[in-house]
Amino acid sequence: MEKIGEFIDTFFLTTIKPMEYGFRCSFITEEGEEGYVILKRGKTGWNTKPIMNSPYVITESNMMGVLQIVSSKFDINEDHYEEIKEGINKKIERSLKDYLNPDL
Hints:
Layout: H1 4-11, E1 13-19, E2 22-29, E3 32-41, E4 56-62, H2 64-73, H3 81-100
Antiparallel strand pairs: 1-2, 2-3, 3-4
């Protein structure tokens, strides 16, 4: 069985767009945008419990479309929440890193 994190990584295309106060990471399929996350730079010295290994924090999100697609592909329940969160976070972190450092 395909793992949920791998499915998220391969099925969704992500785009990063700069905004006035941070970035918008969109999760896109052939049908269009299925979800988004807005990231903003955390306060200076902020490092208590980052969601990602990044100076950015998630300030807003709408991931209902992504979750509906994942739910239709897999029989998910509460036990899968951590794997879904991890898959989404890795995809966001990788996309942001590629956007900020395209040569790496």
